[in-house]
Specification:
The chain has 424 residues and is mostly helical. It has two domains: 142 residues; 231 residues, no CATH class. The protein contains 15 helices and three strands. The chain has a three-stranded antiparallel beta sheet.
């Protein structure tokens, strides 16, 4: 391999990274050649090819934190560390003043290497002790994980680009709104208490505030010349039990006057709505997820927590979380109906067309970004004990709202296809 040029090694590297069932034999041969190629040449090929992919990924909507997370999901901790070096190398010569402030904030949060030279992968390769198969395989997987990222919605202007900032919101930083700060404080108390009644009261009050806040924001926008538009954010929905977590996200979004669209392949959920509603969705979803996981842990402990117990099975936990999400949807429907009824009594018939117009605007924004959306039915709700336990956990957190009465016929949003309870 002494006469192999850098360009030839790059070509071998790229061909392996783009392996398909149609060219598997040729790719295996290329991989075998890379195994006997000096590490430095392979490392330089990895540097050059991966670095060239970054501008495409940025223009295709991927943000630094999202790209790093996807590399970690597709490779391992070492691959994620190399991705940090890749991102740092790409931004080394970029003027921070030309970058969106949210982009710069993500770079800072990632903890990029302070110093990255042109040979950052070569330097790592020289000290790495992994064998050649693992070495070449990791670099191939690093490139493959980036080149296979499909275009997604651009939510933050990438380096060198500008965008209509009215369609974006920086929800990494708390919105400067006293009402949302009150909601955050209430939900933080709900998460921290060990007493069901306290958690119930805090969560109930928080949802009351968010529901009325959404209506007041809608009416204020309608009365002014403010050209309020739906905004979009993405949040991670990680395993385990991603189906159930995604369902909970969809239900919370729907009952917060938003829409959530799951990007299953990447473990992400896109939330579209007006800024105050999107902020409320993210806050409430995060809190309910924490409370659901605490309830699941309590169910496990209550069972005696012996190894192999029914509550330790994946099917039990999946059914628990799906039932929890289903019941949460019913509760949120009750609260929203109560708050809307009170608002209509205060505001009058003007409220209905205002809310309808905002719903239509959100639906249009979703259609523009995603076109036709494929619906799917969550799986894993066949464990009757898990379903019953999850429903009980949600009922224990029932929201007592004084004169709130149960509303008949409550249903989750059509965007959240909820399975029926399994047969016992």
């Amino acid at each position: 391999m002494g006469n192999t040029t850098a360009a030839e090694v790059e070509q071998l590297f790229v061909s392996v990274a783009h392996a398909t069932t149609a060219n598997v034999v040729a790719c295996q041969r290329a991989f075998d050649v890379l195994l006997v190629t000096p590490r430095e040449l392979v490392a330089r090929a990895a540097q050059a090819t991966t670095r060239r992919q970054l501008p495409t990924a940025w223009s295709n909507g991927w943000q630094p934190s999202e790209l790093h997370r996807q590399v970690r999901r597709a490779t391992n901790a070492t691959g994620a560390k190399l991705a940090l070096g890749l991102i740092a190398s790409d931004h080394r010569d970029r003027d921070p003043l030309t970058l969106d402030a949210r982009w710069v904030a993500q770079l800072g949060a990632l903890g990029l290497p302070k110093r990255v030279d042109d040979d950052w992968i070569v330097t790592w390769a020289a000290i790495s002790r992994i064998d050649e198969i693992a070495f070449v395989g990791l670099l191939v997987d690093l490139l493959r994980s980036i080149t296979r990222l499909r275009p997604i919605s651009v939510l933050i202007p990438p380096p060198g680009a500008t965008a209509d900032v009215s369609t974006f919101a920086d929800l990494d930083q708390p919105l400067d709104d006293p009402m949302l700060e009150r909601v955050r404080a209430l939900l933080a108390k709900a998460e921290s208490t060990d007493f069901v009644a306290e958690a119930e009261a805090f969560t109930a009050k928080a949802q009351e505030l968010m529901a009325r806040y959404s209506i007041d924001a809608a009416m204020l926008s309608a009365r002014t010349t403010n050209s309020d538009k739906p905004i979009t954010i993405r949040i991670p929905v990680d395993n385990p039990y991603a189906d159930a977590k995604s369902l909970l996200c969809q239900i919370v979004a729907a009952h917060s006057r938003c829409r959530a669209v799951r990007l299953t392949e990447y473990g992400l959920s896109t939330i579209v709505g007006f800024a105050s509603d999107v902020a409320a969705t993210e806050i409430l979803y995060t809190s309910l997820l924490v409370q659901a996981q605490a309830g699941l842990q309590s169910a496990t402990v209550a069972s005696g927590a012996r190894a192999g117990a029914r509550t330790r099975t994946a099917s039990f936990k999946t059914a628990f979380l799906l039932a929890y999400a289903h019941r949460v949807g019913e509760r949120l429907e009750e609260i929203n109906a109560y708050i809307t009824q009170r608002a209509e009594a205060d505001i009058g018939t003007a409220l209905v067309p205002v809310l309808a117009a905002r719903t239509a605007a959100v639906d249009d924004a979703v259609a523009e970004q995603f076109g036709r959306i494929e619906m799917s039915r969550p799986r894993g709700a066949r464990d009757a004990a898990g379903w019953a336990s999850g429903t009980l956990a949600a009922d224990r957190a029932r929201l007592h709202l004084g004169d709130l009465r149960d509303q008949s016929g409550a249903r989750p949003s059509p965007q959240a296809v909820v399975p029926g309870a399994p047969a016992a």
